[in-house]
Amino acid sequence: MASELHQLRFDPPQSNSSDEPSAKDDRPLLEPDSSVVAEQDSEDLHHKFPPFVRRDVYGTMGRGELPWTEKLLLGMALLTIVPIRVVIGLSVLFLYYAICRICTLFHDPNRETDEQEDYAHMAGWRRSVIVWTGRFLSRAMLFVLGFYWISEVYRIPPNEDKSTNEDEGQEKSQESERPGAIISNHVSYLDILYHMSSSFPSFVAKRSVAKLPLVGIISKCLGCVYVQRESKTSESKGVSGVVSERIREAVKNSSAPMMMLFPEGTTTNGEFLLPFKTGAFLSKAPVLPFILRYPYQRFGLAWESITGVRHFLLLLCQFVNHLEVIRLPVYIPSQEEKDDPKLYANNVRRLMAKEGNLLLSDIGLAEKRVYLAALNGIPRQC
pTM to 2 decimals? Predict the structure, then answer.
């Protein structure tokens, strides 16, 4: 459900003409028949695309040669903890699905457009049950997956001299400082579970998510904004408009869900911060930045250069998983930042990189596709 509100405006890195294969050369970018050449090409790729490189015990694509001790741990986990986690995890999912179904019975969803409908605008006991059980069960799911404790650090904003004589002025100030969106770096699909447990915000998701069994109704209860990512029409402008309206609504109404946005538009290995898209900053509203880290010793939880099935299986096999969260103060844009969304996005990005000790990278989703295609031996088309 990571947000991809705008198309990237840069092209994948181009090769020198002298390095391009001839028209009759159908050899893949990584030649499987030559381990030496493949190793050299792999190192070159890792050097060009560092935000997407896996550095854990399992290696690139999670297919590295493992020591016998690691194979023994995997075997033990497959026979013991994995079946338990699968059964309990499915039970939690079915339980929350049933809760969402019951709470939405005989209640028409809110419809902003023909393609956008949600139950996030419900009031009363129905909404309270959906939110609080959703937060509790999301944390329970993380516990089942091995996140027995989560380290959370709150950055305290510097003290400012404020008048305490006018209560009305303070209330207006609090309203103006209320964030409409949560901004976070994007490392894994596990980011979504954490933010659900923390604040239960709305996400941007592919339109197909709404039709998935079990998950579809849950996404509507979250108030997801659906987008057809494969479409290259002007639809993205409509999605940006819906997102901006939701953000402004959250600023004005404390009971309205905030938008959860990943402005990088894709995942990284957790060490870098990619360029931010401006969709999250078009509303000119304050944002609440989060930084997520997944420390590891064996299996890295970043979802990079590895299939979803393999990643989830290895996640289940890891007995203990770790998550560190840094919550920054609400970022209130200046007038200059309000007038220039790119400036607003870049300033928030630099702040997050500084506070999270992250490296800034100029590459993004387009380059990531080139990297993954090369790893899979697929020649990129220029």
Answer: 0.81
